[in-house]
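Question (not urgent): is this output format expected?
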Amino acid sequence: MGALMVIFSLQPKQRSKRADSVEDELELSSVRHRPEGLEQLESQTRFNRKELQILYRGFKNECPSGVVNEDTFKEIYAQFFPQGDASMYAHFLFNAFDTDHNGSVSFEDFVMGMSILLRGSVHEKLNWAFNLYDINKDGYITKEEMLDIMKAIYDMMGKWTYPILKDETPKQHVDIFFQKMDKNRDGVVTMDEFIDCCQNDENIMRSMQLFENVI
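Got this back:
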């Protein structure tokens, strides 16, 4: 899950608490989107105040307006996967972070998502992953949606992975996963089916690490 953290993180400098506070207020007053107070975000996430300050400075460095749109998100994300095409996966990932579906990701959206992905429970992480795969947000994952995500991951990893992946590999993996997850054979996977299957299948949990590694 390192890519996004590297993008939006800066090495902390030695500062006084007062200098941090003054600089934070100056930064907050200069952006178009003013984020929630650090105390509120600290209570809503698993990051402490210092970590939030570092993340905010990095976020503002990449996104001076205080929000990031999808095109900018894709450009930033592509830097970490030059060997492949990350645009489609970045599109799906952007939509998962854009929880209010307004076409932009705010600092609050970003830290809430990263808090779950980095420090959430297994159940919380799987819940977030389900939301990623549920592309049309209808509460179900279809085989087509799962295949779209899997293809996007393989496209992003590039054609030069080792061992070399065949074109049919994503579909083969999706067929196996979907057969295990769709327990009542109704053609869709519910959140309960998804979480229950993932938690009880070591092979799927290991495969989910591919997803985690590209966050």
